[in-house]
Fold this sequence. Notes:
Structural class of chain A: mainly beta
Helix content of chain B: under 10%
Radius of gyration of chain A: 13 Å
Number of strands of chain A: 11
Oligomer: heterodimer
Low-confidence stretches of chain B: none
Order of helices and strands of chain A: EEEEEEEEEEE
Low-confidence stretches of chain A: none
Largest sheet of chain A: 7 strands, mixed
Strand content of chain B: over 45%
Amino acid sequence: EPEVTQTPSHQVTQMGQEVILRCVPISNHLYFYWYRQILGQKVEFLVSFYNNEISEKSEIFDDQFSVERPDGSNFTLKIRSTKLEDSAMYFCASVWNGDGTVAFFGQGTRLTVV
Amino acid sequence: SQQGEEDPQALSIQEGENATMNCSYKTSINNLQWYRQNSGRGLVHLILIRSNEREKHSGRLRVTLDTSKKSSSLLITASRAADTASYFCATAPFGNEKLTFGTGTRLTIIP
């Protein structure tokens, strides 16, 4: 069964460093998302991406964050200068189309900022 | 209450019993989905129910949706130890696949 894959599974970084989280969505899907989950809290929407551009972003997704689909298969989330409060599990998701279909999530990247 | 709020927050039952979790939401939705998350792991999609549906079944899962009350319930019948996980409801509005997740119910099945 097709699946969304994320790398790395765990990343530890020093505060102020840049990190790039990688995702390979399901190949024929058209909509891509990043969500995050701070430990013990609910899953929060960060950004949606369609047709090679951001379609919606949350308040969390400030100038420190960016997304890119550089080569038609990978979908990346970059955090330019990490803060301690960026420590969380980051999930990538993809959806086939925009008509109420299922979102498939990756296994997540646990980001720890020290 | 928040958009997508589950109750109870935690539930412990004996293996073989049925588990019921509830979710309430605030805004109009296109569909509501239930996900399972094992500790520290990814989100696994369980079932999707559309706004024009009232009940849906998938194996041991039964989901109901009451749009007039803006609520949904997830019933897991004949629970197993492997069902131990956190369960989240997530709503999607019309014209947008962005999901708004609830706070989750932590289900523990006691063997």
